[in-house]
Amino acid sequence: MYAHRNLILMICIFFMTTAFSQSTEKKFKKRALFWIENEFSPSTLSKKEQIKELDWFIKASRPYRGTTIHVISERIDTHIYEAKVLAKAFKEITGISVIHETTGEDDVVRKIETQFKKGIYIYDAYINDSDLIGTHFRSQRVRPLSVFMKKEGRRVTLPTLDLDDFIGLKFTTGPDGILYQLPDQQFANLYWYRADWFARVDLKRKFRDLYGYELNIPVNWSAYEDIAEFFTIHVGSIDGQQVYGHMDYGYQGPSLGWRFSDAWLSMAGAGDKGLPNGTPVDEWGIRVENCRPVGASVERGGAANGPAAVYALTKFIEWLKKYAPPGSNKLNFTQSGALSKKGNIAQQIFWYTAFTSALTQKGLPIVYPDGTPKWRVAPSPHGAYWQKGMKLGYQDAGSWTFLKSTPLEKVKPAWLYAQFVVSKTVSLKKTIVGLTPIRKSDLNSKVMSDMSPRLGGLVEFYRSNARNYWTPTGTNVPDYPLMSPGWWKTMPKAITGELSPQEAMDELADFLDDKLLFLEKEGKIACAPKLNKKRKRSYWLYKAGSPKARLINEKPKGRTISFEDAIGVYK
């Protein structure tokens, strides 16, 4: 009799549980449909395909419902959208709560360094710049995604993730061919200019009379310098407002370090040919042989204190003093970006496309009443030492990073969230919000074609092969958190005049060599540094490639081209 009652009770519990489960599934599917119809539009997927993709997330998340995951990222528009909108959507669709923290980039680096060097478990996932790829593949503390997706993460890996659709995987792949990070957002530092001023017949005539060539997009630094002088000195004011031919910043802090490491020396031409970062010498001036860094100073075969690097720093200081608004040396990255809104800057050689959204707002003096910008972006001009086949600037690739010190059962739901915010269901809308594209399918969509006139050349740049010449810090840097402070601690000494450009680059090269030597002696990483013995500078400077001997003429004749030709160069 008791057995009969127990059987009935078990049957009742089964049906009640099944009914509850079905009710829960219906709730999640209903919320998924709501988000598709009210937020995740437009998309490169059809509504039916979006439903199918989100249905996969609903099913894959079942074991983790009720879980809370913690992630951290840099504070930019794209990640703010993820934290405020996508985290909420993910919870309503999967039942997994997300605490998505946004903070300064330097803080993200500090926290990921603390977790993987001290073994302290802090976050379940990081959206961490691919600048650390050299650190990640050597440390062996990061979960290799290539392996994870095939093994322990196979059941929680999105069938429609479509890695081939990502434009930045080469930046997050180690020399060993393993994928360590998944791109979440990308933005580049490009040349920015007032297209309306450059098109004025009176200004074009005046420039041609003074310099002997057309006022247009500068191909080399000589032309950039001429244009900077032209607007600052010879034009002076437009519509009663003082104008300047250059904009930059010089406040001592981490963002000044990024200004140089991201990647000023590459634009000057300090490194070697080869994409993404120059072989064997990269844009930091670090030489690598057989995956082992062997030195940053010219004396060890590097280029951090070579003639091209000194030329790069010299021009930076000269332009900041002569052609930028007064007080620019006291501004940081964010402040200098906001200053362009005032409408008195003619051009910037180094402008992050992450500011695109902020500089397309209606009502700004740099935007027409119909919402189209008076400015455009184009590929950056190169310095006198640059040669065809070298990288020409920096591209940020904030990427999902998972550490081995994070418990596997926390990594799995965090991996689901990571895939959700880069999924095709979501990615086009996220691109529209933050203007940091990661997928070819989004870039090639009709939606982006329609938006193109309002984005000042951003779409044209990312659709061209030019995007492959703008790359993040590469694999030559063996410990980014350890070595990157050298830039922002040293460069200000040259800006203030405490050191000459040569002395500052010598100090930086010594700093980088000292850190490489520390890592060599510590011997805890794969492909650890093994420094070359010091030689006379002449031994390296007169060999082929980088480091390069000083040019007799560091200011060749200026050359400019049209926007269409500037993009076409990279086709």
First-residue to last-residue Cα separation: 82 Å
Q: What would the principal axes of the Cα set say about the shape?
A: globular
Count the DSSP helices: 23
Percent helix range: 40-55%
Low-pLDDT residue spans: 12-20
- Which fold name corresponds to the CATH topology of the largest domain? D-Maltodextrin-Binding Protein, domain 2
- The secondary structure category is alpha+beta
Largest sheet: 7 strands, mixed
Q: Please report the first level of CATH classification, the CATH class of the largest domain.
A: Alpha Beta
- Looking at CATH, the homologous superfamily of the largest domain is Periplasmic binding protein-like II
Radius of gyration: 26 Å
Give me the CATH architecture of the largest domain, please: 3-Layer(aba) Sandwich
Overall domain count:
2
How many DSSP E strands? 13
Structure characterization notes:
It contains 23 helices and 13 strands. The chain is globular and about 75 Å long. It has 2 domains: 2-180 and 398-459, Periplasmic binding protein-like II (D-Maltodextrin-Binding Protein, domain 2), CATH 3.40.190; 188-394 and 470-568, 3-Layer(aba) Sandwich (D-Maltodextrin-Binding Protein, domain 2), CATH 3.40.190.10. Helix 1 (2-38) crosses helix 2 (47-60), helix 10 packs across helix 20 (485-495) and helix 20 packs antiparallel against helix 21. It has helices at residues 2-38, 47-60, 77-94, 105-118, 133-139, 145-150, 195-198, 201-211, 221-235, 254-261, 264-268, 307-323, 333-339, 408-422, 424-434, 440-443, 446-451, 458-463, 480-483, 485-495, 501-522, 537-541, 563-568; strands at 68-74, 97-103, 125-129, 182-194, 217-218, 237-238, 241-242, 287-289, 292-295, 347-352, 375-378, 395-401, 560-561. It is of the alpha+beta class and 571 residues long. Strand 6 (237-238) and strand 7 (241-242) form a beta hairpin.
